[in-house]
Specification:
This is Type II protein arginine methyltransferase. The chain is α+β, with helices and mostly antiparallel strands. It has helices at about 1-10, 30-45, 55-70, 90; strands at about 20, 25, 45-50, 80. The protein has a domain at about 15-90. A hairpin with a 2-residue loop joins strand 1 and strand 2. The relative contact order is 0.16.
Length: about 110
């Protein structure tokens, strides 16, 4: 019941919109970010697939985590972020990955 109330308030007041990672908006519960960093550190993945890019805050979060983790593997880890919306507006506003120089500009395909 307590968790349901927390989730209801979290959604009602759009608290997920208040999260930031190094200045970039992250639409994620801060507690979830703690778990995500722990899982990322423990598993040291080669690839992370994110669905729902929006402004790229979570992608930026994962990029930072992977950059800070010494994986001992050859080559950098990859982050693939997929969104149903056209990314041109986000890119035009320079919201995506504010310091990542290796980001690859997305492309869209009409379905």
């Amino acid at each position: 019941a307590t968790l349901d109330a927390y989730d209801a308030l979290f959604e009602k007041y759009s608290l997920f919109c208040n999260g930031r990672w190094l200045g970039a908006q992250v639409l994620q519960d801060s507690q979830d970010l703690m778990y995500l960093q722990h899982i990322t550190f423990m598993k040291k993945p080669d690839v992370i697939i994110e669905t729902g890019t929006y402004k790229g805050g979570l992608t930026y979060f994962f990029a930072s985590m992977l950059d800070w983790i010494d994986s001992g593997k050859e080559g950098p880890a990859q982050i693939i972020s997929v969104d149903v919306h056209n990314p041109d507006l986000v890119w035009a506003a320079n919201w995506f990955c504010p310091v990542c120089v290796d980001c690859i500009r997305p492309y869209t395909t009409d379905v």
